[in-house]
């Protein structure tokens, strides 16, 4: 098993890198221990793959080095990927906030990548586990399924730790450490929160209820919907903010993201003085939500009976509800892994390890994590493409 280039990981980044390198005239072999390529692509976006975001910017990424992602994102943009999707006649639509989803199935995207690989002459070997890697002079020697393999360039595209049942392993981190590269602590990102305190009762009672909000934590805010679940809080707003949350932190939820709570309460008091607070809240939220608010937060009376300080207190609670999650659901359900191979170890132009010529890291294995909304795939495409061009 010899190839000029071996790419470990037939996921989003690995396949894109293979296409780019092979189109650039390289002989490319992709190895994956899973029995199928691109399992996360197939699972993504609820089966419709949110494959990029029209508003992709470096600000949509978390990394110790916020500048690292800029070069690749500007050299292979969302428009470049959309051009490939268009070339294959794949129908898609913008769902919201620039998020592009397939009209049909995620397999449209995976099939496109596999077709491109085939046309470029990429060899993909599944069910291939890498047992050992060594650098010998100017090439790499691997043991794969008990057999020796060699390559001049070795690309690690093994992703993060999220969802082990989809083939995720810490292989990329272990290999980086083996070659003396720094790996930053990892944690689950884009992940639901678990709740175990008195709020658990709300989660059980309101499971399935979604509310628009602005959620904030550690200086970052997102305006999206959140969802109560039996185990805690989920939905886009919570997944987004989870990437900024550390154990023990509180999050602040504004339940009236589109207006001033005090203006709303004062207007209602003027328009409907005899209406009970609970009825007003039920109009805005739901009956069940209003009932819990009036059980745990407010005394419900006719609106005309509240003085201004009391209305201000109600407004403050609605605009700055402080919740302290007990934890997250972890890698079992997380969409991404925060942290990973330190970007200081890698060139932002070529993705080659500065200390180990010939060794490359791309995609989620690096300490670059996107927001929810197609940004993680765009990072996989961009880093994969740019690395492939440099091989
Ligand atoms: P990826 O995880 O795609 O691929 C890694 C590959 O390496 C896998 O094929 C794996 O089997 C292989 N591998 C791992 N260890 C190995 C080993 N030891 N030996 C050999 N092979 C090994 N993002 C987005 O932008 N839009 C979306 O809609 C979604 N939706 C979504 C849903 C779900 C359920 C998850 C879990 C994630 C998403 N994401 C997403 C995130 C997105 O899937 C993720 O960021 C990219 O797939 C990362 O691409 P990589 O190629 O880096 O890793």
UniProtKB/TrEMBL annotation:
<keyword id="KW-0274">FAD</keyword>
<protein>
    <submittedName>
        <fullName>NAD(P)/FAD-dependent oxidoreductase</fullName>
    </submittedName>
</protein>
<dbReference type="InterPro" id="IPR004792">
    <property type="entry name" value="BaiN-like"/>
</dbReference>
<dbReference type="Pfam" id="PF22780">
    <property type="entry name" value="HI0933_like_1st"/>
</dbReference>
<dbReference type="InterPro" id="IPR036188">
    <property type="entry name" value="FAD/NAD-bd_sf"/>
</dbReference>
<dbReference type="InterPro" id="IPR055178">
    <property type="entry name" value="RsdA/BaiN/AoA(So)-like_dom"/>
</dbReference>
<dbReference type="InterPro" id="IPR057661">
    <property type="entry name" value="RsdA/BaiN/AoA(So)_Rossmann"/>
</dbReference>
<dbReference type="InterPro" id="IPR023166">
    <property type="entry name" value="BaiN-like_dom_sf"/>
</dbReference>
<feature type="domain" description="RsdA/BaiN/AoA(So)-like Rossmann fold-like">
    <location>
        <begin position="4"/>
        <end position="389"/>
    </location>
</feature>
<keyword id="KW-0285">Flavoprotein</keyword>
<feature type="domain" description="RsdA/BaiN/AoA(So)-like insert">
    <location>
        <begin position="188"/>
        <end position="336"/>
    </location>
</feature>
<dbReference type="Pfam" id="PF03486">
    <property type="entry name" value="HI0933_like"/>
</dbReference>
């Amino acid at each position: 098993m010899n190839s000029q280039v071996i790419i470990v990981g037939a996921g989003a980044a690995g396949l894109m890198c293979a296409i780019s390198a092979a189109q650039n005239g390289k002989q490319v072999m992709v190895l994956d221990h899973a029995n199928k390529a691109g399992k996360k692509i197939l699972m993504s976006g609820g089966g419709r793959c949110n494959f990029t975001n029209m508003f992709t910017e470096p600000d949509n990424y978390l990394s110790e080095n916020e500048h690292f992602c800029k070069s690749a994102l500007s050299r292979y943009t969302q428009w470049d990927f959309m051009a490939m999707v268009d070339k294959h006649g794949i129908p898609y639509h913008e769902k919201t906030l620039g998020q592009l989803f397939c009209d049909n199935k995620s397999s449209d995207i995976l099939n496109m990548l596999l077709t491109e690989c085939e046309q470029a002459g990429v060899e993909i070997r599944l069910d291939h586990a890498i047992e050992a890697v060594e650098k010998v002079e100017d090439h790499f020697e691997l043991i794969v399924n008990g057999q020796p393999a060699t390559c001049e360039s070795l690309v690690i595209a093994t992703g993060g730790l999220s969802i082990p049942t989809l083939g995720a392993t810490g292989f990329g981190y272990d290999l980086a450490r083996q070659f003396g590269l720094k790996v930053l602590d990892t944690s689950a990102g884009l992940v639901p929160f678990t709740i175990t305190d008195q709020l658990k009762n709300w989660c059980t009672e309101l499971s399935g209820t979604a509310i628009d909000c602005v959620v904030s934590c550690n200086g970052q805010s997102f305006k999206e919907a959140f969802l109560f679940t039996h185990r805690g809080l989920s939905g886009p707003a919570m997944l987004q903010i989870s990437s900024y949350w550390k154990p023990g932190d509180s999050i602040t939820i504004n339940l009236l993201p589109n207006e001033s709570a005090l203006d709303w309460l004062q207007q209602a008091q003027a328009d409907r003085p005899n209406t009970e607070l609970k009825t007003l809240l039920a109009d805005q939220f739901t009956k069940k939500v209003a009932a819990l608010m009036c059980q745990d937060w407010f005394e419900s009376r006719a609106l005309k009976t509240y003085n201004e300080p009391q209305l201000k207190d109600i407004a403050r609670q609605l605009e700055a509800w402080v919740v302290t999650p007990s934890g997250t659901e972890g890698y079992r359900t997380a969409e991404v892994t925060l942290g990973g191979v330190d970007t200081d170890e890698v060139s932002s132009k070529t993705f080659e390890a500065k200390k180990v010529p010939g060794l490359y890291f791309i995609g989620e294995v690096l300490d670059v994590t996107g927001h929810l909304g197609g940004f993680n795939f765009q990072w996989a495409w961009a880093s994969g493409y740019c690395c492939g061009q440099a091989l």
